[in-house]
Amino acid sequence: MTESARVEVNYDDSIPNNVSLSEDRRLLKALEEWHPGYIDWWKEMGPEGWNDKEVYLRTAVGVDPKGWAVFDHVKMPEYRWGILLAPQVEGRTIPFGKHKGEPVWQEVPNEYRSMLRRLIVIQGDTEPASVEQQRHLGATAPSLYDMRNVFQINVEEGRHLWAMVYLLCKYFGKDGREEAKMMLQRRSGDEDSPRILGAFNEETPDWLSFFMFTYFTDRDGKMQLESLAQSGFDPLSRTCRFMLTEEAHHMFVGESGVQRVIQRTCDAMNEAGISNSHDIEAVRKLGVVDLPTIQKKLNFHMSVTLDLFGTELSTNGAAAFEAGLKGRFMEEKIDDDHQLYDEKYPVLQVENGQLVEKEMDAIAAINGRLLDDYITDAKGGIKRWNKVIQKCGIDFELTAPHKAFNRMIGVFSEISVTPEGEVVTAAEFEAKLDEYLPNQSDLEYINSLMKPCYERGKYAGWLSEPKVGINNQPGDFEYVRLA
Ligand SMILES: [Fe+2]
Ligand SMILES: [Fe+2]
User: In terms of pTM, does the model score above 0.90?
Assistant: First the structure.
């Protein structure tokens, strides 16, 4: 790491930051008031039972892409959650919408205040939600390596919450501080005070769910952050740009996690001489997850995540784009006027109970487009998973479910569509539900595999070892000190 990158974060402050926090007394006071509540929330809702153990975690110490983090053993409640923004880009202009070409805003434009606050609150709420969803996983960790990874993700989601709370407290006055407090009051899955978005109220009961969640659902986070990183409100853009560097590791944990499960299953099948991947009973006798069940888990997590993108045609999405607050994925690489006054975009719609693609106003279809970009991005990992299966010589192919499958939000919620994309009656769908989504006995089977494996360098029997250690540590490294 370069020296300049290291010193730009001030670790003498109670809250590490590169935003000159000590010079803003009002903000510092607001954050210092919020801090104890955050620690209380962490102790109550963070990883259950592991707060006094030392975990090998990376902590952001700068925003230089080449050396922004250091690794060390720390107790999670003592983790240095900081406020880090990517460097300001000199002369940056608003890249899209009706203010395109104007200088970016360093303060909140009055007319967009509530819209902007809402965007920040929705993003912020997902961060503590996933920590809450994952809080029981330490008890069944398949290795110390995996346990460390879930805790790393947890502390970084905590830091992402700090990032959004910083924006709320700095730029939104009293109502911002109120929203910051509410972030610590809502609870994932709570009946009276749930988290804002549906997928963040689902449980993450087992490690396969965790890997699927970090692959599919953290990837929604990536897409949202990418489009907020385009924002004309520069502090939001800079905040999200830095969050994306951390998010990459979360998706790596998901992709490599699922891959290791698949690898182990295929190896075990080959060792036992089982070539029929649909002989579920025989495969399960080997103590690994059969491929059809992995497909059903994939169907579930991907379809639930698609709902996070909201309705395909959305006046909110259009308004946020027009205002210059939330752009598109890779906005700068898109070849159009970035204002979308006359542009069209093809959106799949339901007409007389059938799926039909229609050219719609592109600005109304901002959400639909982000959804399509997400699906393309998510298919990359599925392809790589299939390579593992192929290499093992096993005849099975994982596929992404059709985007209309199992949807609760948007136009597809009114109809029943198979994972292959065929429109069927509700009764036909119901009759085959067991083939589409994990059933009770699938979940019970997965759950039966969830036995902790805490020995250094050892892994539970249902997933393979990772190819390399975290920060290149050797195989028997003590990622979590249990003593
Ligand atoms: Fe996050
Ligand atoms: Fe994440």
Answer: yes
